[in-house]
Design goal:
This protein has a single domain, classed as eRF1 domain 2 (Nucleotidyltransferase, domain 5, 2-Layer Sandwich). The chain is built from five helices and five strands. It is globular, with a radius of gyration of 14 Å. Strand 2 and strand 3 form a beta hairpin. It is 37% helix and 19% strand. It is α/β, with parallel strands linked by helices and 134 residues long.
Length: 134
């Protein structure tokens, strides 16, 4: 998968988020880390219309879902304010599924690609290698 120049790459799981900006171009991507800020973990619902107790039976799952929803809130806000114009999301398969429930329509419009893989804590070189293989 190619990463457009200026794209934001979000790497997440149920506990961590890293944001990168492609300062290079598609042929020679160069990921630089971007500050994320605090993630609001209060939204522990299993998506619209689902109570957390029935959708997420254990506390760890609820905490992870709350974190992932907070991550998407940050991404949604950055898309809506024009800070993100192209987005690649890399997340563990379960986290990615939960994230999709919270995508704003505008986020979907700027979404360049998704990779269902847990790469949190990996270097930018490892992330680029996984994206090149996708």
């Amino acid at each position: 998968m190619q990463i457009p120049k200026g794209a934001t790459v979000a790497v997440a799981d149920g506990r961590k988020i890293s944001l990168f900006h492609n300062a290079g171009d598609e042929a020679n991507p160069n990921l630089t880390a971007v500050s994320v800020g605090d993630v609001n973990t209060d939204n522990k619902s299993g998506g619209k219309g689902h109570s957390s107790s029935s959708a997420n039976p254990d506390d760890n799952t609820q905490d992870e879902d709350g974190f992932v929803a907070g991550v998407v809130d940050i991404l949604n806000q950055q898309v809506l304010t024009g800070k993100i114009s192209k987005l690649v999301v890399i997340a563990s398969p379960r986290a990615l599924g939960e994230m999709r429930k919270h995508y704003h329509a505008k986020l979907k419009d700027v979404l360049v690609g998704e990779l269902p893989k847990d790469l949190t804590g990996q270097t930018s070189a490892d992330i680029l290698k996984a994206l090149a293989a996708a």
